[in-house]
Amino acid sequence: MYGPRVFNGNPTMVKFHLNGSAIDFSASPDTPLLWVVRDFFDLTGTKYGCGMALCGACTVHVDGEPTRSCMTPVSAVAGKRVVTIEAVGDTSQAPIAKAVRAAWIDKDVVQCGYCQSGQVMSAIALLRKIKSPSDADIDAAMSGNICRCGTYQRVREAIKSAAASLRKA
Amino acid sequence: MTKVSRRRFLQSSAALAGGLVIPFWLPGGNGRHALAQAPKAPAVPPNAFLRIGKDGSVTVMIKHLEFGQGVTTSLPMILCEELECDWTKVRYELAPAAPAYAHTAFGMQMTGGSSSVWNSFDQLRTVGAQARTMLIQAAADQWKVKPADVRAEKGLLIGPGSRRMPFGQVAEAAGRLPVPEKVALKDPKDFKLIGQPTRRIDSAEKVEGKARFGLDVKMKGLLTAVVAHPPVFGARSKTFNTEKVKGIPGVTHVVELSGRRGVAVVGSHFWAAKKGRDALEVEWDLGPNAALSTPELVQRFSELARTPGKVARKADNAEAIKGAAKTIVAEYQVPFLAHAPMEPLNCTVDVRADSAELWVGSQFQTVDQGAAARTLGLKPEQVKVNTMLAGGGFGRRANPASDYVVEACEIAQAVKVPVKVVWTREDDIRGGYYRPMYVHRVEVGLDSQGKVVGWNHAIVGPSIVAGTAFEPMLVKDGVDGTSTEGVADTPYDLPNLQVMLHTVDVGVPVLWWRSVGNSHTAFVMETMIDDVAAASGKDPLQLRRELLAKNPRVLKALELAAAKSGWGSALPKGRARGIAVHESFGSVCAQVAEVSLAGNDVRVHKVTAAFDCGLVVNPLTVEAQVQSAVAFGMSAALHGKITFKDGKVEQSNFHDYRVLRMNEMPIVEVHLVTGGEKPTGVGEPGTPPVAPAIANALFALTGKRARALPLDSMQWT
After folding, report:
1. Which residue of A has its CA nearest to B339?
2. Which pLDDT band, with edges at 50, 70 and 90, does B651 fall under?
3. What is the mean pLDDT of residues B401-414?
4. Among B342, B623, B639, which would you mutate to test the A interface (most chain A Cβ atoms within 10 Å of its Cβ)?
5. Is the peptide bond before B710 cis (omega within 30 degrees of 0)?
6. CB-based contact (8 Å) between B654 and chain A?
7. Every domain of chain B and the residues it spans
8. Nearest CA to A25 among A45, A8, A42?
9. Neighbouring residues of B400: CB distance < 8 A, sequence distance ≥ 6
């Protein structure tokens, strides 16, 4: 890892779990979770798109909930479990993650791919809650994830396809 | 004979692990880097494109930027069609900047103009055929049979009797053979891979978060820079509070850009640099654009539109409309637009003693390499440009001025360690290089039967290419063709069409934006044609048929879209259809949009597209690109605008520069016109027709005619 290391006994240290590992983070507690995972832990799968929780490219799971990491100061995840795109397949969400990824590949969803980490994380969270999402459910769960390539139609198809494969499993 | 020496082949064969059949033409080193240093490419440099490993893996070097359009799959398909390899063993690698990777028509390495597939088509087929011929020769030598008795199939060489050998086994020997100068290419009717719906080969890395974009570049000691750009275009920094900013933990440097055109705050990570920039207080000399205002620009453009401009197309009789029985006069305006690619602009630069290395998702490798060299006082061949995956671009990464690349080079030179410049979304939305704003004024004369007798069309707006290295190529007799394309070359048979252009420099940096001039001209032309239909009491489809009678290709796409959309059939109450067709980048796209209104919100339920892009390489990608182009066009049609007040851009992020979201995405049904002989443009031609198709549907629904974009600025109910 090349990220700057700032573990210097700062009294404002934030303790949380990142992809299953216990972390004591002691840089500025106002650092957004996005930049903590990207710049301090080299987890670059989580993307920066807007910095205002408007585009969803930075979506991670915090205690299983889809969360915009760009507007979440690291202090807000103290004691919580953070999972990024790199590790979501190793969690209890593994079957859903696997089905979502397989559907994404099968439906040839990705284009530039930059937003897709966030799309996949939002889709996994949706399918965890709703086994057979309707179009309205998909709109509600996915409209916070912008894709400038406009892959929305195939994202929708892939979510339905993943849901169908999970129901069969 | 090839100019590449046998010794060189051997050297590079040995240097690259895994063995290779058509090795790089340069000796030694990792091919990626060696190529960037190459002073000159050989005349025929097929070897830069292909590597075959001893394990049978086939690696295709991608000379174009991958930013969504799927070249990492479509370009290997073209090469592998001739190679006859095992498609499941194909990988891609992004090519660095090097002369060998120049666009075959434009002479520099670049991605734009919807040209990646067509300019690579014969080039990569030739490489594939050459490699296959060499593999066959090597196998024949080994078996001591005639090459004519050996064939290649799915990565296997098949000889007389039971002779079988995988490509990998003979790759090294084949690599030592001379590259055949002339090879026969397949008859397109024998294509097995080209034309087949083929899934992308870069999907897995992109759904696992493993794909590396420019923003993801990491290296030891890398710093991050965030730049305070002028609040008004052309403003210059006067004073700023370096000391306070340097006191912020993690901030390492404060660097003023040359020409006082901005102040960079450099830090050990993004958040430190961003906090530093937030704390930065710059006093600016606002300069000549401090009063820039959109309403004032509209008024200025509108006044100019009523005066004679440069003639882009001359009518046989420009006075013809004077005798018309009926005249339609309309004035249109379209705003500046930001590209807003998902991945904010960034560039990483490492400056060393007598060289530099860049990591950037560039559409303009050659231009950016040259600009970096000039900035750093190096020769282009001393600058390695590593092409990264880009999170969209839409033209923004093809800047003749290399703005963010030059910026990154200046900062890296100042701090003397590797630095990554990262633009925030606000920097992107406010940073200029927009699709220009334009005003069109159109006067159409009709005779008593409703037939067009004359069409006077004035366009007013900034020129994309004026003052750039592209000006000599793209400006003819004072007319920037990128401002008038789509009108001056309309496929409609319009008697006495006169097109005039007023080029106005308003101090706002402008640039090509997906579909370039067609992004506004199609809106104007196709809504005007609809107007003519309404004025002459004709069905919009029927009028288009009549005006396109001499253009069977455009007509065919139009008829296909109309038929597939159920044009003319009944719709539920509150819904209406609109049609539009436009030719651009050598392709034709016709679309029928089905819309309704929810209050004042425009809902687009379905877009039925018919697309003729000639010979289709990958139908799955082409469909995706039309869906993408429609979504991109819809963002602008419904919401997109960059406006100015007191010299400043009024928008800043996705809340006020709205783009299409999932809940607004229509079903986009794509129907391909088959039977083309050569590929034509794919990425852009789907964008122009969508705004007019929606506007025409809204006219059918409400009787109100949109003369300005975005459509959400209009009162529909």
Report:
1. A148
2. very high
3. 98
4. B342
5. yes
6. yes
7. 6-200, 214-287+345-422, 294-336+434-713
8. A8
9. B364, B367, B465, B468, B469, B470
Facing B200 at nearest CB: one of A42, A49, A110: A110
> What was the ipTM of the complex prediction?
0.95
Is there a contact between A150 and B620 if contact means CB atoms under 8 Å apart? no
Same CATH fold, B214-287+345-422 and B6-200? Answer: yes
Average pLDDT over residues A61-77: 97
Q: What percent of chain B has pLDDT over 90?
A: 91
CATH 3.30.365.10, applies to B6-200: yes
Compute the residue count for chain B.
717
From the CB of residue B287, how many other CB atoms can be counted at a distance below 10 Å? 14
Question: Which domains are seen in chain A, by residue range?
Answer: 14-85 (3.10.20.30), 92-168 (1.10.150.120)
> Measured between CA atoms, how close is B315 to chain A, in angstroms?
40
Q: What are B20's two structure tokens?
A: 């290779």
pLDDT of residue B40: 36
Q: Is the pLDDT of residue B34 over 80?
A: no
Q: Which residues pair with B164 in a beta bridge?
A: B158
What is the CATH topology of the domain spanning B294-336+434-713?
Answer: Aldehyde Oxidoreductase; domain 4 (3.30.365)
Shortest distance between the Cα of A167 and any Cα of chain B, in A, equals: 22
∠ Cα B677 B683 B685 (to 5°): 75
Q: Which of residues 133-172 of B touch A (CB under 8 A)?
A: none
Residue with tokens 């809650």: A129
B:252-281 residues touching chain A, CB 8 A cutoff:
268-271, 275
What pLDDT was estimated at residue B222?
Answer: 98
Q: Nearest-CA residue of chain A relative to B274?
A: A31
Q: What is the pLDDT of residues B180-238, one digit of tens each?
A: 989 999 999 999 999 999 999 999 999 999 999 999 999 999 999 999 999 999 999 99
Q: Residue B207 is nearest to which of A39, A112, A116, comparing CB atoms?
A: A116
Do the Cβ atoms of B514 and B684 come closer than 8 Å?
yes
> For position A27, what pLDDT does the model report?
85
Question: What is the per-residue pLDDT for B181?
Answer: 86
CATH of B214-287+345-422, one of 3.30.365.10, 3.30.1370.20, 3.40.109.30, 1.10.486.10: 3.30.365.10
Closest Cα in chain A to B428 = A50
Arithmetic mean of pLDDT, B58-64: 96
Average pLDDT value for chain B: 93
Select the residue of B207, B269, B631 nearest A35 (Cβ to Cβ): B269
Q: Do B663 and A155 touch (CB under 8 A)?
A: no
Pick from A114, A143, A155 the residue to mutate for testing the B interface (most B CBs within 10 Å).
A114
Q: Do B631 and A85 touch (CB under 8 A)?
A: no
Q: Which of B270, B628, B655 sits opposite A111 (nearest CB)?
A: B628
**Which tokens go with B139?**
């196998």
Pairing type for strands B601-612 and B667-672 reads: parallel
- Please say if the pLDDT value at position B454 is more than 50: yes
pLDDT band at A10, cuts 50/70/90?
low
Distance, first Cα to last Cα, chain B: 72
d(CA B8, CA B4): 7
Tell me, what's the pLDDT at B16? 33
Give residue A11's pLDDT band: very low, low, confident or very high (50, 70, 90).
low
Closest residue in chain A to residue B342, using alpha carbons only = A49
Give how far A160 is from chain B: nearest CA, Å. Answer: 14
Q: What number of other Cβ atoms are within 10 A of residue B303's Cβ? A: 12
